[in-house]
Specification:
Elements: E1 6-8, E2 14-16, H1 20-46, H2 50-62, H3 67-74, H4 78-90, E3 94-98, E4 106-110, H5 112-120, H6 125-134, H7 138-154
Antiparallel strand pairs: 1-2, 3-4
Helix pairs in contact: 2-3, 2-4, 3-4
C-alpha cells in the first residue's frame, strides 16, 4: 500500500498532492495576498495607490500628456484616470497645463514631488513580475500564459474586464 503524498499549507493543513483544485485555490490565494500586501504597503507608507503610481510613472517616463492618452497607456477608462489625476493633483504630484496652441488640450505633467515619490516608492508589483517572467524561457512563459488563460475560462471570467495593474480592493473603489 502506498502512502498519499501531501503538501502542508501555512496553517498546517495537509493537502493531498492529487487535490489539484485545492492546490490551485491555495496558489490563487497566495497571489491575491501578495497583491494585497504590496497595495497596503504603497497606501500606508507612500500614501499612493497602485493605479496612481502607474499613472505617475507613465507621465514621468513619457512626458506630459492628455488624460485620454494616459488612459490608453495605463489601460484604464478615461473617467477613472480623471479621478486619479484629481487625487494626484491634490497631493501636488502632478499639474494640469493648458496647451498654448490648442486651449482645449490639457496636459498632465509630473511635479518634482511626484518624481521624488516615484524614486522612494518600491517598484510596482507588475514590474517585478515582468522582470522575473523575462528571465524564464519562452516555453515557460507560454505555459504560464496558457494555463492562466485556461483558468480564467474555467472560472467563466473571460467577460470580466481587467487592467494590467496588480491591485485588489473593492470593485467600486474611489481611491484609485
Amino acid at each position: 500500500m502506498s502512502a498519499t503524498k501531501t503538501n502542508t499549507t501555512n496553517q498546517g493543513t495537509l493537502i493531498p498532492e492529487a487535490s489539484y483544485d485545492l492546490r490551485i485555490m491555495q496558489a490563487l490565494r497566495r497571489v491575491i495576498r501578495a497583491i494585497d500586501l504590496h497595495s497596503h504597503k504603497l497606501t500606508t507608507q507612500y500614501k499612493i495607490t497602485g493605479p496612481q503610481l502607474s499613472c505617475l510613472t507613465t507621465i514621468r517616463d513619457d512626458g506630459p500628456m492628455t488624460s485620454a492618452n494616459l488612459a490608453k497607456k495605463v489601460y484604464l477608462s478615461p473617467s477613472t484616470v480623471v479621478g486619479i489625476i484629481d487625487r494626484l493633483e491634490e497631493k501636488n504630484l502632478v499639474t494640469r497645463n493648458r496647451d498654448s496652441k490648442d486651449r482645449r488640450q490639457v496636459h498632465i505633467a509630473i511635479t518634482p514631488s511626484g518624481a521624488e515619490l516615484i524614486e522612494a516608492a518600491p517598484s510596482m508589483l507588475q514590474e517585478t513580475l515582468s522582470a522575473a517572467l523575462g528571465e524564464l524561457s519562452e516555453i515557460e512563459q507560454v505555459s504560464i500564459t496558457l494555463a492562466l488563460e485556461k483558468l480564467v475560462d474555467l472560472m467563466e471570467a473571460r467577460h470580466i474586464g481587467a487592467a494590467p495593474i496588480l491591485e485588489t480592493g473593492p470593485l467600486t473603489d474611489r481611491s484609485a
